[in-house]
Design brief:
This protein is an all-alpha fold. It has 17 helices and no strands. Its main location: membrane.
């Protein structure tokens, strides 16, 4: 009974955060630290830092994975699920509402979409610059980022993205073995049953999703096929919500117009909570006859791989991260992710959003407002919506 009560508390805590956590994964992690480490003392700074490092190493939505892990530590699997639902529910509902608005095909929606596309350019540009400064501090990591971006700008096939990430990880394992790591106590590890069950389920579903994506002729409007496409994308997203864009574009983008795809992505920038809620909008668009079912299945399928891996590894991470080759692979993957994100910024984000000189001026103003003046994201949204209405 105590665990049930704790799970409800976790749900309401994360629900409140999900209603106002604007600004993307990095901002979410800042909110989590202030709320759960400094205010509630649910875990200490060292434990929190380990969870953040784990989320950077695994594919999936970083802030949602950290929230899920906090729930796991607090109340087991029920607590993890409560944290995930609470944090995701507000953005899920808002993106479903955005789909309902978009289905009306009126001028107001088209104007709204054009403004939100420009917002997406500014937010992703800021993310690229921030990630470059954080993940590309060494000469070798900068080379990895530049090479990754150069290849993926000209060749955007999904298999090539996977190859780039794999080659970066291999390079990091071989050449970044000099990292200075802290010592980890050699206490007994927790039971490995959850580890192998979760990893087994993750890889089984991944193999099935690969078969469906590459060999099945069923279209994306079939719920099972759509679930496989989103699970496949969620299994390969290193670097957080922004990086899901090129993967989803490859998997489901052909079933939607570029207007629908980028409008949904831009809307995901404008709502609080995890950017993976982009899947809510896409799922509803792909199955317009049963949009709620499509939204639920797409959202769960995109989040599931990252949550399975966190459930498997969160208790073992302190030991794994002390292995130099694992730390080196993480460093190199993060650098390659910067290149991947830059290629997505060039095409399709800028290509689809910028059409005239005034758009470029509006982007420069927005970037200054966000990057240097650090205005709240809601004010930036208002700026671009006003701009869209003025030039329509």
């Amino acid at each position: 009974m105590k665990r049930v009560h704790t799970s409800w508390e976790i749900f309401w805590r994360f629900l409140s955060l999900g209603c106002f956590c604007f600004g993307g994964p990095a901002a979410h992690l800042g909110y989590f630290h202030r709320y759960f480490v400094e205010r509630l003392n649910w875990l200490d700074a060292e434990q929190y830092g380990q969870l953040v490092a784990l989320s950077q190493f695994l594919p999936g939505p970083g802030s949602s994975q950290v929230g899920f892990a906090i729930g796991l530590q607090r109340a087991g699997l029920a607590g993890g699920i409560a944290a995930f639902i609470g944090f995701t529910l507000p953005s899920f509902c808002l993106m479903l509402g955005f789909f309902a608005l978009s289905s009306q095909h009126n001028l107001d929606f088209l104007t709204l979409a054009s403004g939100l596309k420009l917002l997406a350019v500014v937010v992703v540009s800021d993310a690229v610059l921030s990630m470059y400064k954080h993940f590309c501090q060494s000469h070798s990591s900068r080379i990895i980022a530049v090479l990754s971006a150069s290849v993926l700008i000209f060749f955007s096939a999904i298999w090539l993205q996977i190859l780039v990430l794999s080659m970066a990880a291999t390079f990091g394992m071989l050449y970044h073995t000099h990292l200075k790591l802290g010592s980890v106590p050699r206490e007994n590890l927790p039971t490995t049953q959850s580890l192998w069950l979760s990893l087994g389920l993750f890889f089984t579903l991944f193999v099935i999703s690969c078969w469906v994506v590459y060999f099945s002729a069923t279209d994306s409007s079939h719920l099972a096929h759509m679930a496989a496409q989103f699970y496949h994308s969620g299994s390969l997203v290193f670097g957080g919500g922004h990086v899901v864009l090129p993967l989803l574009q490859q998997n489901v983008g052909s079933a939607l117009t570029s207007e629908q795809f980028l409008s949904g992505y831009a809307a995901a920038q404008a709502v609080p909570g995890p950017m993976f809620s982009f899947a809510t909008f896409l799922g509803a668009q792909l199955v317009p006859l049963t949009p709620i079912s499509g939204a639920i299945i797409a959202t769960l399928a995109l989040f599931l791989p990252g949550l399975l891996l966190v459930f498997a590894l969160h208790q073992h991470w302190a030991h794994l991260s002390n292995i130099p080759r694992v730390a080196g692979a993480t460093l190199a993957i993060n650098a390659a992710v910067v290149g991947l994100l830059f290629s997505a910024l060039v095409d399709p984000i800028i290509k689809q959003a910028v059409h005239q000189i005034s758009d470029i001026v509006a982007l420069l103003i927005g970037f200054v407002l966000l990057r240097w003046l650090k205005i709240p994201i809601l004010l930036l949204i208002t700026f671009y919506l006003a701009y869209a209405y003025l030039i329509r």
